[in-house]
Amino acid sequence: xxxxxxxxxxxxxxxxxxxxxxxxxxxxxxxxxxxxxxxxxxxxxxxxxxxxxxxxxxxxxxxxxxxxxxxxxxxxxxxxxxxxxxxxxxxxxxxxxxxxxxxxxxxxxxxxxxxxxxxxxxxxxxxxxxxxxxxxxxxxxxxxxxxxxxxxxxxxxxxxxxxxxxxxxxxxxxxxxxxxxxxxxxxxxxxxxxxxxxxxxxxxxxxxxxxxxxxx
Length: 216
Fold this sequence. Notes:
mainly alpha
């Protein structure tokens, strides 16, 4: 038992170190002009690495986690398809090249990104000292909207996506609420008992990463 705890602790520490290190290296690559093209090309692989680190640090039934991940990824991809092709969610926008291979004009990595955000936020709000599940979900949705406020200028500048209106519409943030609320509710329904200690770190590092890119 002690050996298992020690191995789990070591895995968590290594994963946290890798998350912090790769985001620091990523910041350097994004901010140094001659490195930028290379680092923009590896953004999809960075997302896959973050996905791997979250998955290996999840405790409990792995099949349950995979089902939840599938729900979030498919829902996130569907929401983006509606956003891009119907403009019912988020607004009028198109994806650039940075997120990699596209299916129906939507990067496959966008589903992964939605999972990273929803899962990390879901784990974080489990620790929020309020009893009402609905309030935790609302807090989580607000956190994601705040994160998107930081993401948008960076995403536009580095060709993640572009708004055809030339500015980020209020509809985008309403769309984030409409998508994140039900997905965070699903996270609550899955009731993951053993919390992933790496997930909140990833959420915090994402906030810091995009904040630095906004203000440097």
